């Protein structure tokens, strides 16, 4: 009986130990599976958190099972112990069984010790399991916290993950070469190339040739050979075949030279390219026009049309055939030649402005640029038919005097942008307008001859101005500027150009920047020889949101600038105070700028802190070479430029800037 019970107890203990060992190994395996990969900046998915919770529930179940097994084993051991104990109770004393009784007592003691050891072992094992569960619970909490932090990572990291993971099984793509990328991704890469580069890529291989012929890469076509990034077409018939078979409905923008302005080409364009929205017709180099009597088809869904006029070619015969197709037009550009003649009889009205307004009732933007025959009669004619106008530009229309402004502003109640740069506008015409009834937000009076009273009246009654350009205006004086500041007429101003305003002092400008510099996004102040670096150092700290700045005075030797400008402190001020700076132009010539070997440190500061900087224009010289080499070493090419090739302006801050772009 004793031998049987001892063997049974030992076998039960061994089985229990095996169960505990297997559970321990399972726990270790699960903990290894919960280890995070290196880097700890991968995104923890909700699936992993669910697995951790399932593991925690499974551990709790295992502990419950182990506890039940232990209780059952303990009950069995106690039962067998009672059997052993009952075997010691004998009715009478037998000397021969004394030795066997002693052996049974020793076995009983051994069994009790084994039972205590088993109890301690189970208790320790349960404590270890509980500690593991607590550890893994803390791990789950830490993973949840880490998941919330990882959600705030940069969008670039998520984009890279999308590029390198398969959308179906989320496995990494093994990229052997660029051709193994998805076609959609390759098309997106090729879309950043101009047409000349796309044509070169088509010669690489057959796969790239087929890729470069995708219509999505040919949504716009520039066919004027005299302009940058334009394509020169030698065989017009072959191009017309491509127009119908390759470009067709994907074509949205096209620029046509005089060779393509034919009835047959417009017929093909109207029938095949039904989604065409932007059309440019260049008549500037035309010596004679073809016969358009058979022109019966023309693109009818145009949103913008640009017509480059000729000096001597009359377009009425052509325009008469297309008037009926222009009802959807919203943006119209009429571009002149900018060539003036002293004899009025030599100026020809090559296009009938009065008829255009009758067929374009939906026009919102009209840009009349450099047209020498435009006068007040033409503007009155436009105002009578285009009541939805929001932007009107007469830049470089040298015969426009402004007496039609009253009619224009009375009829076009939606007009918000008025650009009058380099016009012959007169002060008396300005005084006739009730500017308080307008909603003008953008006003360009650059290089006009308005007097002080006209400017004060005009600007004082236009409190909603966000864009103001009065460069080269002698009538913009301290009195006008101070009057606007005191009456708080500049509270909405975001862009200001006061370059070469000879009657405006730097003290009034500094007071304006001190009070309203924080709201400016663009500021141009050049041509004042008395301005030094101290003015700019004190002013820049008030322009926290500035994006575009133009400063300095070119040709300092001609204007006899006595002092030299320490450019390092100006650069440092921009680096510290203007994190949103995008374009900066410093016009001082190399003889005026002062710098030393320590200037490299300040260049590093503006390069690192002004991360949005797209253009830094300097006079060609030693300082320009130093700045350029600094940016190129940081692989930021084409940022530093020279004033001989580039010019910075605040016109990009105009609300209708993109609609006013042409050529």
From TrEMBL:
One of the Pfam families matching this protein, by short name: F-box-like
GO biological process per UniProt: positive regulation of protein ubiquitination
Matching SMART domains: FBOX, LRR_CC
Annotated ranges, domain F-box: 175-221
Highest taxon listed in the record's lineage: Eukaryota
PROSITE patterns: FBOX
Alphabetical UniProt keywords: Ubl conjugation pathway
Protein name in the entry: F-box domain-containing protein
Native organism: Brachionus calyciflorus
């Amino acid at each position: 009986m004793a031998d049987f019970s001892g063997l049974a107890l030992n076998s039960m203990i061994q089985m229990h130990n095996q169960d505990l060992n297997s559970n321990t190994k399972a726990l270790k395996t699960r903990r290894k599976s919960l280890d995070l990969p290196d880097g700890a900046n991968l995104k923890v998915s909700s699936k992993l958190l669910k697995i951790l919770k399932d593991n925690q529930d499974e551990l709790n179940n295992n502990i419950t099972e182990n506890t039940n097994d232990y209780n059952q084993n303990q009950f069995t051991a106690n039962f067998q112990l009672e059997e052993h104990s009952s075997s010691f109770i004998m009715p009478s004393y037998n000397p021969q069984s004394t030795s066997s009784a002693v052996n049974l007592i020793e076995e009983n003691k051994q069994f009790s010790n084994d039972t205590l050891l088993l109890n301690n072992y189970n208790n320790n094992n349960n404590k270890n399991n509980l500690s593991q569960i607590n550890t893994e619970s803390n791990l789950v909490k830490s993973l949840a916290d880490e998941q919330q932090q990882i959600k705030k990572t940069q969008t670039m990291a998520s984009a890279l993950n999308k590029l390198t993971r398969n959308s179906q099984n989320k496995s990494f793509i093994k990229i052997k070469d660029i051709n193994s990328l998805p076609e959609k991704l390759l098309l997106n890469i090729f879309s950043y190339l101009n047409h000349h580069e796309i044509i070169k890529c088509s010669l690489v291989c057959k796969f790239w040739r087929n890729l470069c012929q995708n219509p999505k890469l040919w949504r716009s076509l520039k066919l004027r050979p005299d302009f940058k990034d334009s394509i020169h077409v030698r065989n017009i018939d072959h191009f017309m075949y491509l127009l119908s078979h390759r470009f067709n409905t994907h074509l949205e923008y096209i620029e046509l030279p005089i060779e393509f302005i034919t009835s047959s080409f417009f017929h093909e364009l109207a029938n095949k390219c039904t989604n065409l929205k932007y059309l440019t017709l260049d008549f500037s180099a035309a010596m004679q026009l073809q016969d358009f009597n058979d022109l019966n088809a023309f693109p009818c869904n145009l949103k913008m049309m640009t017509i480059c006029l000729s000096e001597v070619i009359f377009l009425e015969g052509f325009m008469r055939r297309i008037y009926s197709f222009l009802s959807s037009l919203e943006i119209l550009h009429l571009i002149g030649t900018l060539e003036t003649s002293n004899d009025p009889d030599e100026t020809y009205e090559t296009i009938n402005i009065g008829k255009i307004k009758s067929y374009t009732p939906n026009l919102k933007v009209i840009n009349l640029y450099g047209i020498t025959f435009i006068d007040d009669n033409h503007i009155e004619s436009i105002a009578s038919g285009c009541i939805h106008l929001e932007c009107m530009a007469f830049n470089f229309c040298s015969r426009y005097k402004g007496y039609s402004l009253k009619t224009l502003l009375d009829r076009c109640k939606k007009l918000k942008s008025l650009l009058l740069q380099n016009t012959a506008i007169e002060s008396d015409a300005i005084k006739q307008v009730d500017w308080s009834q307008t909603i003008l937000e953008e006003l360009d009076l650059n290089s006009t001859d308005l007097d002080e009273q006209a400017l004060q009246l005009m600007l004082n009654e236009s409190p909603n101005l966000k864009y103001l350009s009065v460069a080269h205006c002698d009538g913009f004086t301290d009195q006008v500027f101070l009057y606007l500041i005191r009456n708080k007429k500049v509270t909405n101003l975001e862009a200001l150009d006061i370059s070469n305003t000879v009657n405006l002092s730097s003290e009034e400008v500094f007071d304006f920047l001190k009070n309203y510099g924080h709201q400016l996004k663009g500021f141009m102040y050049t041509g004042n020889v008395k301005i030094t670096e101290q003015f700019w150092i004190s002013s820049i700290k008030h322009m926290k949101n500035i994006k575009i700045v133009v400063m300095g005075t070119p040709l300092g030797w001609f204007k006899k600038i006595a002092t030299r400008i320490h450019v390092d402190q100006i650069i440092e001020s921009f680096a510290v105070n203007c994190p949103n700076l995008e374009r900066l132009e410093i016009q001082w010539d190399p003889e005026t700028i002062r710098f030393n070997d320590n200037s490299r440190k300040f260049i590093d500061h503006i390069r690192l802190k002004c991360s949005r900087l797209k253009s830094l224009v300097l006079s060609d010289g030693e300082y320009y070479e130093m700045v350029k080499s600094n940016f190129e070493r940081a692989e930021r090419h084409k940022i530093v430029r020279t004033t001989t090739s580039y010019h910075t302006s605040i016109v990009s801050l105009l609300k209708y800037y993109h609609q006013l772009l042409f050529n």
